[in-house]
Write a structure and sequence with these properties.
The protein is α/β, with parallel strands linked by helices. The chain folds into two domains: 138 residues, 3-Layer(aba) Sandwich (Rossmann fold), CATH 3.40.50.720; 152 residues, Dihydrodipicolinate Reductase, domain 2 (2-Layer Sandwich). It is built from nine helices and 14 strands. The chain has an eight-stranded mixed β-sheet with strand order 8-9-10-7-11-12-13-14. The chain is globular, with a radius of gyration of 22 Å. The N and C termini lie far apart (81 Å).
Length: 329
């Protein structure tokens, strides 16, 4: 099967790695990159023997597949232009800034017969891939995704920046329809929410407790899943996991069998892009489809709405308490 001609729109901190992998992945050839900064586009293009553009239109004439790695606010317009040009697209998470935009892209991709994949790379973390067969019918899920503060990603709330990775993972375990979302969050170092916690209850009875912070002193990427007969703990950074199973021997008390796992050092992004290439070549549904990306964004939107309700309620209570105090001075 022929090599797919690949391009990258946006070659900043993350986009440069998309270009790096396309340049060496079997099944694809990096044709060119596009960036608003001519110097940046030229630098990355020369590094990989590709062409450089500052406008997506010229790049789209030369490629079959494209990664969209621009700021979230530009995901919709850029991806829409790519799909309208008949190109297969991998857009970084979140798929768009709003659910309505996400649904429009999903519908457009279907009309144009294009593969639309969303960059939820944690799905491709080797330890997640190894542990997925151990996760069935979760009863309780706990997620912690903590980072130190940096300027990248602060154009959106931490829910769309970091938490959405775990929201996608939770939904990938098929817990069923969302029944209730409670959440709280506050800005700390940026104008947007920098730390947030959400409690999500599903109609199946499963509950997910999800915490995300970009103002922590240390980095953490952990997922814990509790099931009827086992407990799975995953450390995405160390690529390690523990599975604790309940063992019942007739006539004896139940015991716990603990098994440890260590995954390899393959780059999730490289595995993700290879999966995208294979989905395009075989015309099959990608591992993280546009529909999956839209579902994660829908849940993230519910979390943000719950945070807004929580903040408004407590602001009103604080204002009422202050007024009462003034009246009784």
């Amino acid at each position: 099967m022929k090599q797919l001609r690949a391009g990258v729109i946006g070659v900043g901190h993350l986009g440069q790695h998309h270009a790096r992998h396309y340049a060496t992945l079997p099944g694809a050839t990096l044709v060119g990159v596009c960036d608003a900064s001519p110097n940046r586009a030229q630098l990355i293009a020369e590094r990989h023997g590709a062409q450089a553009w500052t406008e997506p239109g010229e790049l789209l004439k030369q490629v079959d597949i494209v990664s969209v790695v621009v700021p979230t606010s530009a995901h919709f317009s850029t991806t829409k232009a790519c799909l309208e040009a008949g190109k297969h697209v991998l857009v970084e998470k979140p798929i768009t800034a709003t659910s309505a935009e996400a649904q429009e892209l999903v519908a457009l991709a279907a009309r144009r017969g294009c593969v639309l994949q969303v960059g939820h790379s944690e799905r491709f973390n080797p330890i997640m891939q190894r542990m997925r067969p151990h996760i069935e019918r979760p009863a309780f899920i706990e997620c912690h995704r903590l980072s130190a503060f940096g300027e990248r990603g602060t154009d959106v709330d931490v829910v769309l920046d970091l938490m959405i990775h775990d929201l996608d993972l939770v939904l990938s375990f098929n817990p069923g329809p969302v029944e209730e979302v409670r959440a709280a969050g506050v800005p700390v170092l940026s104008p947007n929410i920098d730390i947030a916690n959400a409690r999500i209850a599903f109609a199946s009875g499963c509950v997910a407790n999800v915490t995300a912070s970009r103002v922590s002193t240390s980095k953490m990427r952990r997922l814990r899943v509790f099931q009827r007969d086992r407990y799975v703990s995953i450390d995405f950074q160390a690529r390690q996991a523990i599975v604790s199973r309940r063992v019942q021997v007739p006539g004896a008390k139940p015991t716990i069998d603990v098994e440890s796992y260590q995954a390899g050092d393959e780059e999730p992004l490289r595995l993700e892009l290879d999966s995208f290439i294979q989905a395009v070549k075989t015309r099959t549904r990608p591992v993280v489809s546009g529909e999956d990306g839209a579902a994660a964004l829908n849940l993230a939107t519910l979390v943000l709405e719950a945070i807004s309700r929580f903040t408004q309620r407590h602001s009103m209570e604080a204002a009422a308490a202050a007024a009462f105090s003034q009246e009784n001075v």
